[in-house]
Write a structure and sequence with these properties.
The complex is a heterodimer of chains A (492) and B (306). Chain A has helices at 23-27, 51-55, 78-90, 173-186, 221-226, 253-259, 279-293, 308-317, 337-342, 347-360, 378-387, 396-401, 424-427, 432-457, 462-465, 479-485, and strands at residues 9-13, 33-35, 39-41, 61-65, 93-96, 111-113, 134-136, 155-157, 161-163, 190-191, 208-212, 229-233, 244-246, 267-269, 298-303, 322-326, 335-336, 368-372, 391-394, 472-474, 488-489. Chain A has 16 helices and 21 strands. The longest helix of chain A is centred in the last third of the chain and has 26 residues, at 432-457. Chain A is globular and about 75 Å long. In chain B, strands 1-2-3-4-5-6-7-8-9-10-12-11 form a 12-stranded mixed sheet, with helices on both faces. Classes of the chains: A alpha/beta (492), B alpha/beta (306). At the A-B interface, α3, β5, α5 and α7 of A face α3 and β13 of B.
Chain lengths: 492, 306
Amino acid sequence: MIDYIQPEFHVDIDYDKCHKCGRCQGQCGWGVYSFVGRPLPDDAKCRACHRCVTFCPAHCITIKRSDLAYRENPNWPVAARKAVWRQGASGGVLLSSMGSDRPRTSLFDALALDACQVTNPSIDPLREPMETRTTLGKRPQVFGDEPPKEWAGRMTLATPILFAPMSFGSVSLNVHKALALAARELGIYMNTGEGGLHPDLYPLADNVIVQVASGRFGVTPEYLGRGAAIEIKVGQGAKPGIGGHLPGEKINAEVSTTRMIPQGTDAISPAPHHDIYSIEDLRQLIYSLKEASGYKPVGVKIAAVHNVGAIASGVVRAGADYVYLDGMNGGTGAAPAVIRDHVGIPVELALAVVDQRLRDENIRNQASIIVAGSIRSSADLAKALALGADAVALGSAALLALGCHLCQGCHTGSCSWGLTTQKPELTRRLDPEEGAQRLVNLVGAWTHELQEILGALGVNAVESLRGSRDRLRAIGLDAQTCDILGVAPAGR
Amino acid sequence: MIGNLSHDKMNMAEADPATRPIEGYVHRAPTVTVSRRDTTAATITTAASSATATPAAPPAAIVDADHIYYRELNAAIAGLVADGVRDITLRRVNGQRYLGNGLTSPDLRLRIEGVPGQDLGMFLGGAAIEVYGNAQDGVGNTMEAGHIHVHGSAGDVVGYGMRGGEVFIRGDVGYRVGIHMKQYQSRVPTIIIGGKARDFFGEYMAGGRMILLDVASQLSGDALGMYVGTGMHGGEIYARCPVNPAQCGREVGLTPATDDQMAELTPLISRFCTVFGLDADRALAGQFTRIAPVSSRPYGNLYVNL
């Protein structure tokens, strides 16, 4: 069959400057380059990940958007036409990765933070202490009460940031090591995702949250005992309501040992946990995990969907120590594009609704809220805290710090940056310690920026910003959205 | 010895709503009787050809579970195991959940008299649990190793995500039994059911072996429900009953068990019958159908990359 789809990018090489060294060919994981006296690119394979550009010693490669013109038709964007061509040729479900690339306005971008002027003093965080330490878990019902022993929040973060769950299998072991090393250095947590915990991470397990998902891959009594906390994954923002299929090609010997399934078989996670069909069942799993682990904190990760307020209320009543809300802009290692792009709701709305619902029901103290999907900057972080989050989780941002260029090729298993692949010649491209340093730098920088924001707001602790929606104003949002967010329009 | 129930209930009412036990149970350490079993244990040691002086027989313990909440029961079990007790009997068990949850002592025998509650032996990493009564949902859920034998029937999701060990149920089981069982290296889990099973038997099954005998059922009707082996991509199911392809998922194929396969099953089924006092000849008579996946990659061609 003729392929109707023309290349999206054009690899432009200035051969006058080219050293003919062939490094571009060696660096490209997608097989773009052949070499006949000089590099010859096949534009069709390029994903614009810039690996070759970054490593070209002559700076002679430029990746350009293809100039190929299509007849304009706003009702039929080129991407929609290409999808139809692709499915007409293959009959397949379109698979993609990372967060949705649909044009969608972030509500964080429509929110503005307050600052002190004249009537109340702002604080200079460079000269005065500024507390970012955050404790996750249950709190006493009444201020000043001692929390019951098992209610004590036993997850303390030096800054209200965690690394989001990404399984070993979807990402490389070196990515896991970088995340775990950085988490220890920063006094925060990384999360295994549902692929089990590799023995190399055992010494770092005090800063690791171990996840239990519907496939129960790698879940053993030992695994539950090692982590600092346990997370039940019910849903993911990028693919609410569906399970996961890690293809057999990605199950190499190492991935096989932590998932504890034979090499080369598909790792299929069922869409639901088949022992959770109700809130009562969820409570049962939470307490079963607590019994098996000596009463570690147990969190529940859910995707932000339409009725998220009621769902989160049920999750908290089921006994979760934290609720992890993952919004529809969250990333993924692989998801059907139709689900990723069209299912779920933005996390900003979900967070506002859940925080309000838990307050209205007088159970907000019983669980912390972690939000993700997608937190792109310290501004998003600060706005999420003001909307009611206890902490945020970074997935895409962490991968970006490690070199990801958001080329959306994770599901192919050929990541040129060595992040979302299991090919040894690619995974060795990430040095875990250098990666950890980049993550430490990123989280450190955001923490400093958060302190600046807190200082401008005239408060000296994240606790004082948390849930303070009166420190937010909306710009250009309709009245109903403002109402849902619990935020007044700018000028009011 | 039963404590003053009314007094305990008063304490319960004052306790925190999130941690207080379900009505009918109390937070109280159970009465534990530890005994050194002399004759039987000594005989076993001698039989194991220990030539020198007979070492002290391992102590056995009896725990009165009446009205005691599961947390205190599991704490008592953990305490006894830490003290070297390897034979524990729970008496008067009545619906307590999570019993034996996450135990990892391969030489531990835990006998349960009564009806244990949900998630019996969940995350079990080693121990032999014997239930003299029926069991509820989630027996051997996400189990890693060990044995669970139920001298009665069990509820739904028996052996969900199980990766090793064996679960024997003498009677019938409910829905979604053996969902997503898997195997890894030497760990090949086994579930044998003496009676009938409801729908979704072996759904998503990725490894291990399930055998359905239909010799000790209290139910009438078909031995297997609908959607057998839906999404199955590993392992095998043997059913000693007629199986209609319409009852099964598209991902499986049905074949009569061969003589070689029966030779593999025979010792397992014989042992099952010995455990429960069933007639092995009867259990082995009749045609067994093997239900197995037609592909280990049922969804390999489902997707096209963007």
